[in-house]
Design goal:
The structure holds 2 protein chains of 2 kinds. By secondary structure, chain A is mostly beta strands. Chain A has no helices and 12 strands. In chain A, strand 7 and strand 8 form a beta hairpin. Chain A is globular. Chain B is mainly β. Chain B is built from no helices and 11 strands. In chain B, strands 2, 4, 5, 6, 9, 10 and 11 form a 7-stranded mixed sheet that branches. Chain B has a 4-stranded antiparallel sheet with strand order 1-3-8-7, with no helix packed on it. The chains are: A mainly beta, B mainly beta. The interface between A and B is medium-sized, with 21 and 24 residues.
């Protein structure tokens, strides 16, 4: 079946540091890939997505590139802010059949001033 | 604000009891999804409804059931509750439709605590 493996947390960085959160997936075919963010006490928000190989999703300074050859979708940001502190989830959705999202375990990110 | 509403925000109950969680999708969305977020299982898909009909089923226990009503709101019923059912339950909605692969918008969740 489909699965997502995500970098274990928690991750603590200083403000303006470079961020990478690793995500790899296992799926049949070519799924769509997503990063969701969950701020404290809130629901999930879509951060960015990519629907096919070599696509780059980007939003709010975050980027992730769909790498089919390495089955990866790593999240990066060049300079993090305190307001980026949240839990980040990598997810995939098949492009055929059911539409359910399969999530990774989540990575808690804390940015210290 | 995603436009998806869930009630109640918090629910505390005892083992063996039954509860109902409610979800109102975004205006115009026909698909509703339920997910469970627990410490040991992570975020898991439970079930999807599209325009009143069950469309897909995930890791949903037999003690759990759901339905989507003609006004498109959905309810998740959890019965014979156990301590391990304590979790955050999310509802998401999307436009849906044949062949549609639309973004899912998540509600704020209902936190269920079983004592």
């Amino acid at each position: 079946g489909n699965s997502v493996t995500q970098m274990e947390g928690p991750v603590t960085l200083s403000e303006e540091a470079f961020l990478t959160i690793n995500c790899t997936y296992t799926a049949t075919g070519y799924p769509s890939l997503f990063w969701y963010v969950q701020y404290p006490g809130e629901g999930l928000q879509l951060l960015l997505k990519a629907t096919k190989a070599d696509d780059k999703g980007s939003n709010k300074g975050f980027e992730a590139t769909y790498r089919k050859e390495t089955t990866s979708f790593h999240l990066e940001k060049g300079s993090v802010q305190v307001s980026d502190s949240a839990v980040y989830f990598c997810a995939l959705r098949p492009n055929f059949g059911n539409e359910k999202l399969t999530f990774g375990t989540g990575t808690r990110l804390t940015i210290i001033p | 604000d995603s436009g998806v509403t869930q009630t109640p925000k918090h629910l505390i109950t005892a083992t063996g009891q039954r509860v109902t969680l409610r979800c109102s999708p975004r205006s115009g969305d026909l698909s509703v999804y339920w997910y469970q977020q627990s410490l040991d299982q992570g975020l898991q898909f439970l079930i999807q409804y599209y325009n009143g009909e069950e469309r897909a089923k995930g890791n949903i226990l037999e003690r759990f059931s759901a339905q989507q009503f003609p006004d498109l709101h959905s309810e998740l019923n959890l019965s014979s509750l156990e301590l391990g059912d304590s979790a955050l339950y999310f509802c998401a909605s999307s436009v849906g439709g044949a062949g549609g692969r639309n973004e899912q918008f998540f509600g704020p969740g209902t936190r269920l605590t079983v004592l």
